[in-house]
Prior knowledge:
Structural class of chain A: alpha+beta
Number of strands of chain A: 5
Distance between the termini of chain A: 44 Å
Helix content of chain A: 25-40%
Order of helices and strands of chain A: HHEHEHEEEH
Oligomer: homodimer
Strand order of the largest sheet of chain A: 1-2-3-4-5
Number of helices of chain A: 5
Amino acid sequence: MHSIPIPSAKRSSRTKLSHAGAATAMMVLAVGLAALGSAASAVAQEAAKVDYPTGYRDWTHVKSMVIQSGHPLYESFGGIHHIYANQSALEGYRTGSFADGSVIIFDLLEATAADNAITEGKRKVLGVMQKDGKRFAGTGGWGFEGFAAGDPARPVVGKDAATACFQCHTAQKDRDYVFSVWRE
Amino acid sequence: MHSIPIPSAKRSSRTKLSHAGAATAMMVLAVGLAALGSAASAVAQEAAKVDYPTGYRDWTHVKSMVIQSGHPLYESFGGIHHIYANQSALEGYRTGSFADGSVIIFDLLEATAADNAITEGKRKVLGVMQKDGKRFAGTGGWGFEGFAAGDPARPVVGKDAATACFQCHTAQKDRDYVFSVWRE
């Protein structure tokens, strides 16, 4: 964590004040600290935030799968999903180890079954795994996020990545925590 | 069609030969003409041949669909298919008109239904539409080919494109004969 200077608090400690003035200074300090607290946690959250994967629809399609009612993952991942990978992640599929900068997409759409066919519906969630050993040291070097309906403004995982995502992915530790496999 | 010189035939017409020699010359001529015939039809087929779409797995994924037993297209296209487009074809999806050089892929894989999920199996056929107004003037400017199991050496459509492919695609004339629509 970086130290952040608080001009108002510093000034109040150097200045002789009336009682009322001191009370005001304390309030300023309190407000200042509260602001610092918010700023600090904002910085902490910022540091661990997964980037929205701009342009991912042009990345390479790795594989797809349909998860149907009755499947153990149906509640979370029911529908048709497509896996996409950026250039660095493609290399990771080949070598089994993903370099910082690798991004893997789990693009989940509704699957509409009708007339003996399954077609794609609306986007349910856009899942992202972003590799950065430093930023995401606590979760195997991967950041996890899900954007509801693919909306960059609606992240649904946030600081719950460890329990909501990584916990399952630990099963894949030998493959650098990645479930999907490149399909020719 | 280009004229192809047949040295052996020309030489035989200029040379005075014995009966046996004349018979040999006739045989040489016949063999020469047969060779010419093969070469000529090879040239004609060459002109209308669809290129194998090298590198298509890195092109942009447009959309996917699963066609199941009971669907009218099940016999031909049962399984899960993915549509890919090269850069020029992507522009075509946007404008509704596809420039020469546009290539659209219909990548058909077996769809394996088990445990309340549908997963991808082996490649059944790699379908290709290649736009070239001159080469494929007879079929809306599009060349059609299917490579069995994705094998470049096993084209299955050949000169049957008009009946095997284009006939259905005429229904989409207003969209430059393309069925698929870009899905965000």
